[in-house]
Every structure is written in C-alpha cells, then in structure tokens.
Amino acid sequence: MRLGFNLPQIGPAAGPEAIVRVAQRAEELGYDSVWVTERLLYPIKPQTPYMATPDGSLPEVYKTVLDPLEALTFVAGQTSRIGLGTSVLDMPYYNPVMLARRLTTLDVLSGGRLRLGLGLGWSQDEFDAAGASMKQRGRRADEFISVLKAIWTTDPVEFQGEFYQVPKSVILPKPVQKPHPPIYLAAFNPAGLKRTATMANGWNPAGMPVDGMKQMMEGIKGMAQEAGRDPSEVVLVVRANILVTDEALGEDRWIFTGSSEQVKADIAATREIGAAELFFDPTFSPDGVSLEGFLSRMEMVRELASE
What we know:
The protein has helices at residues 16-29, 68-76, 96-109, 124-130, 137-153, 190-199, 210-226, 260-272, 291-304; strands at 2-6, 33-36, 83-90, 114-119, 157-160, 165-169, 183-185, 202-203, 235-241, 243-244, 257-258, 277-281. It is of the alpha/beta class. Helix 3 crosses helix 5. It starts with a strand and ends with a helix. The mean pLDDT is 96.
C-alpha cells in the first residue's frame, strides 16, 4: 500500500516555504505522494452547512487557501520522484479543455507524476461564485471526464456532446503517463459509484469506516466487471483526515482519529482490505495547522504505518 501526505496548502501555514519543506521531507521519509485539496472561498453565512461542524460553519483553516494546481506545479520543480495528487478538484468549477491543458502541463513538467482526484462539489456558495449549476452535475461529469480523455488520448481531438464541444483540433503535448494520468473519483451515491466503476481508475473515499469502504469497493468492482472492465483496474485510494490524541477515543470516533494505537489499527485495517494508497491530512489537527505540526505528524504517521 502506497502512502501519501497532504501539503500545508490550506490554513495559516500555507506558503512557499511550507509546501516545499513538507514535500521534500515526504520524499526523504519514503512517502509515495503529496496531495492538495480545493476550497474556492469561505462563505461567511454558508448556504450549504458544512457537515463536520455543529453549526454548519467551515473550519477556520479554510480562510487561507493556495490554488491546488499552482501549489503542485511549484512543488514539482523542487522534488524529483514523489507523486502529485489532487483530492479533489470540483469539476463544475472548471472548463474541461482548459483544465486538461493545465493538468497536462503539470504531468509533463513533473515527468509523469500527476494523480487526479475529481469530485462534484457541494457548496452552493462556491457554485454561485463559479457561475456553475448543481443541476445535471452527474451528466456533466460524465462528459467532462470524456473530454479530458479525448484530449489526452487522441490527435487530432474532436468532441461533440450535450454540454461540451471541441472542434477538430490539435491539442499538444499529451501527458507523459499513458494512456492518461490516473483519475480517482470521490463518490458516494449510486450514480457516482457507477461512474467510478465505468470511467475512473480508482475510488477516493474519506471519513468512511473500513467495513463500509470494503463493501462499497466490492460493489464498484462488480459494476466494473459488468461494464466489461477488468475489476483490478479500479483501485481504492483512501484519504485519511488524521487526528492523533493522547487518550483513546470511544467507539463513535471517526476513522483515523484517536490514540496512536487506534490510528495504527485503522491503517492496518485499510491495508488489509486492499487499498492501493492511503494518504493523510492533518490540516484539522490542533497542531497540524503549523508547518512544524505538519512535519511532526508526517514523521509520526510514517512510523505508525510501518508494517
């Protein structure tokens, strides 16, 4: 199982020194990947409540955000081998042709290290700011992914769909990775899981108990087989929002939170169900918002994850 760690691209520590130091230290410690996430804005009075807080407000760390792709591109030039992942970019906020260009540039400049996590978004405020609509998000996502693949795998490119059109054109260069960089989808409803099974290279859940991940992953692989795909082509890539406490937490704790022994057990259980990759985000830990908090958590997790 590969291991990754989030960059301090969100929160008060976000800056050039912090993301480079964490990325370079991750390489030194033998991590396989570093990751970024997306937050478009911090609504003062959110229309869509944030599910992880009692009053629906967003965590304070979301007030400061470096753009995910620019952050990864900056890090790419100062690292040599580590994978560069997004978890996740929200498709409705982007034009697929322009995003394909940006992602190709990152893959080329990094020597083929991009790992692309995509989602549908959930914040009405962000949709409003991006001029996007929550209606027909699923159908648009299907076409969005198809446009990315067409640009990355065909020359010349031509696409005519319900929502997106690309006139017959040359769009070069192509990504280093063939046939294209891996695409992971953060999905939980039936339509999203089917999209993962038929169109993606992996599923990227977060906050779900191990038994739930195992059951849903089995369902995804079953749908992939029904669609004529090799089920082994769809892998499990888990995001762990980690919080290590001095004392053990009760049975109602979130996965990857609690004492070091509890977190270590969660890591082992995730490995046991066949996850291809597990990456950790300490952004919401009390000491994880600082650069030193990220570095210390990264070293601790590396030890906890050792077999």
